Amino acid sequence: MSLWLSGIGVSRGIAIARVQKMHGGDLEVPEYTLPEVEIEQEVSRFYGAQRKARDQLRAVRQQIPGGTPGEIAAFIDTHLLMMEDRSLTEAVVALIREHSINAEAALRRQRDALVAVFEQMDDPYLRTRKDDVDHVVARIQRILLKSERQIAPKTEGAEPFIMVSDDITPADIILLSQQNVAAFITEYGGPLSHTAILARSLGIPAIVGLRDARKLLRENETVIVDGEAGHVLADPDAKALDFYLRKQEHQAQYRRDLVKLKGKAAISQDGIKIHLLANIELLEDAAEAVANGAEGIGLYRTEFLYMNRKGLPSEEEQYEAYSRIVAAVQGPITIRTLDLGADKQVDSGRSNGPTPNNPALGLRAIRLCLKEPELFRVQVRALLRASAHGKVQIMLPMISNLQELRQSQQIIESSREELRNEGYKVADEVPIGTMIEVPAAAIAAPMLARHSRFFSIGTNDLIQYTLAIDRVDDEVNYLYDPLHPAVLRLIHMTIEAGIQAGIPVAMCGEMAGDPRYTRLLLGLGLTEFSMHPANVLEIKRIIIESNIGELKRKVKQLLTSLDPVEMRDLIDGLDA
């Protein structure tokens, strides 16, 4: 009899294949006291496991095929750096010596300490980087415990399979992608997990957060995975198989048709030009953005320059990094200033002071930069110097009032004068914009627009702050609703304020790259979308097929509705 299961669909596509389980999930870590004469031998055992784990990752790194998206190699590089990070290695050795305990127990203690720091982070994307710690620690633990996972080498003519596991590391995903894997199902993880990000990059259907999947799905049984809906159908009947086979072929043809749009402009049926930009983090992402037809960069995140290190990045180091990105992009590039909080300074920077009870509402982003202006000034100087090499815009995150905006602008302007007096080249014009991700900023948008050169709506935080929920928290993330009337009205207020002030309004949150919301956003008046490079072509297709004037008429009616059911029906009708 068929079994229907639901998880979180994080990478679209239909897969039909047999189940293969990856065993060896949760590790049982023993803890015991060592006699003094064995302590240094235990330290050597830990270093040996660390070296073996590092060599394994390097071997995986060498197996990444040419042309693979840069972010995939970047995950492995991040893990290699963590293998060498003193906050992991030296701390474990210190615990072994100080407490006379075995390496496995010391590694578990340090893992718990590091994860606790990441769990305090307010940014959902960065908080999920605790996965890096877990994956690196688990690899070393498996070597210490002699329980390493084995991925069988690919055999000629092997059938596709659907991997079911508790979680999957980036290294495992890279190896499995070369072993004819058709889809991933994991018991843990969310939309921002490594599995989700890498599966989307590789175009492999994936479902995460499907609890007890390893118990409910049998080895070698045929299952259907719908990565968009988040559904798994085990032991399907002939009628279900036929339906999903036809759906699978339809999606394959759809993807083939998208490629034809690469050189085509994003112009609607009624002649309105829409600008499609990309969100990036690494230099390699810029090449992918260009390849997918993005006109520029709508969000370049700079936080990774500050993480997994002891000291702060220097002005020169930041200048080199920004200059490489700017030189690689022909169109405009919007660089967001540091969006870290006091709780995230464990790797580099300030480490004093109590951990905030609620870091999402504490000292973070522009608040931190204004409280520690030298931290901000170093980055601003590097950004202004990089502006001499291309079309740079500076975006300020988490602005909640005009005073913060004006104070930030003053620091940027004084830094410009300093650089010119020192003989550095700086672009004549570097637009400074406001990121609208706090409800207060959306409500005050008419005032902020008078002092900003552009807006960019960060829907991820805007939705969370508006609805008072954390989408990374499994207990409440079902309340995360981009279509909540309050969220839609705040987005509309922001766009209208930009139109009235004559400044461009972009959106760089996940809504911008989600085809379910494209017509709605067009109807709200959005003309600049910034997203993951892989989503550009699909959003372009929807724009080309849309009549924006007609969408605006429908959305105007939607915004005046006071009935949630009617609003949902009107939203569904936008696709008709």
Helical stretch tally: 23
CATH superfamily of the largest domain: Phosphoenolpyruvate-binding domains
What is the top-level CATH class of the largest domain? Alpha Beta
Low-confidence stretches: 342-355
Assembly state (oligomeric): single chain
Structural class: alpha/beta
The rounded Rg comes to 25 Å
CATH topology of the largest domain: TIM Barrel
- The percentage helix is 40-55%
Describe the model.
This protein has helices spanning 39-62, 70-84, 86-99, 103-119, 124-127, 130-145, 170-177, 194-202, 213-216, 238-259, 283-291, 315-328, 365-371, 373-386, 402-421, 439-443, 445-449, 459-467, 485-501, 518-523, 536-544, 548-559, 564-573, and strands at 3-6, 8-11, 14-21, 161-165, 181-186, 206-208, 222-226, 231-234, 275-280, 297-300, 333-336, 392-396, 432-436, 455-457, 505-507, 528-531. It has 23 helices and 16 strands. With 576 residues, the protein is of the alpha/beta class. An eight-stranded mixed sheet has the order 1-8-7-3-4-5-6-2. Strands 9-10-11-12-13-14-15-16 form an eight-stranded parallel beta barrel, surrounded by five helices. Strand 9, helix 11 (283-291) and strand 10 form a beta-alpha-beta unit. The longest helix has 24 residues, at 39-62. The radius of gyration is 25 Å and the shape is globular. The two termini are 36 Å apart. Mean pLDDT is 87; it is low at 342-355. The chain has three domains: 3-24 and 150-241, 3-Layer(bba) Sandwich (Glucose Oxidase, domain 1), CATH 3.50.30; 36-145, Enzyme I, Chain A, domain 2; 269-353 and 360-548, TIM Barrel (Alpha-Beta Barrel).
